[in-house]
Amino acid sequence: MTGERSDVLIMGGGLAGLTLAIQLRRELPTLTVRVLERNRHPVPEAAFKVGESSVEIGAHYLETVLDLRQHLETRQLRKFGFRFFFNEGQDALNECVELGPSAVFPTPTYQLDRGILENFLGEHAPSLGVEFIDGAVVRRIDLADTDQPADAAKGVVGDHVVHFERAGTMHAASARWLVDASGAAGLLKRKLGLEEGNDHDANSIWFRIADRVAIDDWHDSDWRQLCHPPERWRSTNHLCGPGYWTWLIPLSSGSHSIGIVADARMHPLATINTFDKAMAWLAEHQPQLHRELEPRRHLLQDFAYLRHFSHGCKQVFSSRRWAITGIAGLFLDPFYSPGTDYIAIANTYIVDLIGRDSRSEPFARQVRAYEQLFFSFYRNMLPLYEGQYPMFGHAQWMPMKVVWDYAYYWGILCQFFFQNRLTDVALFVRLAEPLAICAALNRDVQLLLRRAARSDVGAISPEFVDQCELKWFGDMNRGLRDVLDEAELQRRIEENTATLRELAAQIAERVRAEHPAALEGLDSLVGLAPKLAPDLLRAA
User: Fold this and answer.
1) Cβ distance 488 to 425 under 8 Å?
2) Are the beta carbons of 14 and 326 closer than 8 angstroms?
3) Average per-residue pLDDT in the chain?
4) Is the pLDDT of residue 335 over 80?
5) Which residues make beta-bridge pairs with 371?
6) Could you tell me which CATH class the domain 5-47+117-196+313-363 is placed in?
7) Which of 98, 155, 189, 343 is exposed most, by the fewest CB atoms within 10 A?
8) Does 3.40.50 match the CATH number of domain 77-111+202-306?
9) CA dist., res. 536 & res. 538, Å (int)
């Protein structure tokens, strides 16, 4: 080690910690950054960590903010979007409702082999001047002892001190800023009693197979050729049923990641928490996947599970110069792969706060504002998952939910990140009204569809619901990379709010036709009537 003190000390050298370190060195190159990582490097490829699917915010963060495009394009896989099959208990994917794009959307996303990525980050960060210490086990944290925030006492407040063990030797590292990126260990959250649950009770299991699970070969060429190129295997494939979904994610190492995520009440963890149990469960609920995996049992690389993975956190940023990023803070659900997104958002706020402090600027007000915004993103997205799993197998209403969820994500949150406006608190204030309208619409649309899905699915013909047929949908994705000034961004948020209102009205109209009582008490939807043509849901 080059010294025991640094400006920033990051506990955890996984995806969250190393990306933060890289961003700090790129944007604040005069600061010294040290990362303590428990695992020894290099880490295993393929069978290392989950969180392998990225979506637009996380991909943009890695590709553009951190300038890792070359690595993503040469060492990882370009993703063929999300794909959903509503095929509970069915023997063939071509005999169910499929929702997804027939061609790759313009804004890139990637499938990430976490071992390959974190080994690369573990080499790239030191090349930028980060001190990366692997095999370092944190034993004790001594936070700076003061009753005054850093703003009020620059140069007086003491350093944080972390005691860690490496190769049998104890070390004490001090830093002005301490960031917890320790993942599930949640070192600061546990120390400070910041644990916070939510009402989304779901569990997951996952394993990797050392082989490609090529779903394009499961059926004839007519089915394959519905996609261009015919490479559904590159998608994050969701095989959905009541109370659960199963993921299929390809890795650039040649392995395939398979997971089951399920409502704890409908599919208890005890029914899937070993590989043999999971295979028996797949035989019942996803027989075609089971048939594909059974001959590959000998290629099993790992197996793991996680109970009640969704959680919040009471505080993630502090004016006393500590912060939390990644799942050490909060986590929603893997269904739409938001993990890297929330790393990108948290890291952006943390870098801004550290930068203000390094320039001797007051930052306590920003701490409060950024945390309020960060938690609002979490709370506004939680309704996408909370209480929704029972409807996941509903081939009539679930495609509408997915289209809505994408539009809400691309149309609002993505806009602020892609335009580098996350820290523009004044802009959020000016847009408070449309943002509140969108949040209320999202809350009510989720509840409306949940109510509608209590009905039986009924007889639904096999169909490929092609998202590329929704021109406005593709345009919204394509527009993410537009460069907008402040006035243009404000207009776009207002326009996207109008689109979401129209989409909500059309969803409500369809539900009203079959379940008129479902709209009761949903204030943002009552009286909302479709005004536009063509039908925004014509492909759903």
Assistant:
1) no
2) yes
3) 95
4) yes
5) none
6) alpha beta
7) 155
8) no
9) 6
